Amino acid sequence: MAIEVTDANFEELVLKSDKPVLVDFWAEWCGPCRMVAPIVAELADEYKDRAVVTKMDVDSNPEISVKFGIRNIPTILFFKNGEVVDKQVGAVPKTILASKLDAIV
Question: What DSSP element (H or E) covers 24?
Answer without folding.
Answer: strand 21-26
